[in-house]
Structure prediction request, 148 residues.
Amino acid sequence: MTVTGEVTDDELAAIYTGAHAVVFPSGDEGFGLTPVESLACGTPVAACDIPAMREVLDERAALTPRDDLAALIRAAEEATRPAAEPCSWSWDDAAAATWDLYESAAHAPVRWRGARTEARSEQLLHSDVLDRGLDELLAARDVACPVV
Prediction:
């Protein structure tokens, strides 16, 4: 293992591409961008079998029990290239799904949103975030991604 510190997007893509496998030992993850980027570079992934990884990687990686370090290491050692094709999701897809979620939450009945009042619900419906529109949200994103 080499600790690099901060690297550019091109350097990160080269690191992924040159790796035998990427080990992603997270036991609690919300998305897992590193494995997706790794797959996009053709590098196999060994990760803990947690809901986010099952959803994002969808059998594209070797998933091991989250408390089994030996299995995780073995999966990385046994990984072969090329890796499975990366997910077909794009940043536009992610933004659209996020927008849909916000929009459905804004239109949900007040009783589903906790103790908010009707006036507060109306205010949320017309908030700056929702008024900006999907196109502006897509244009405003500034996410460093070494691979598309």
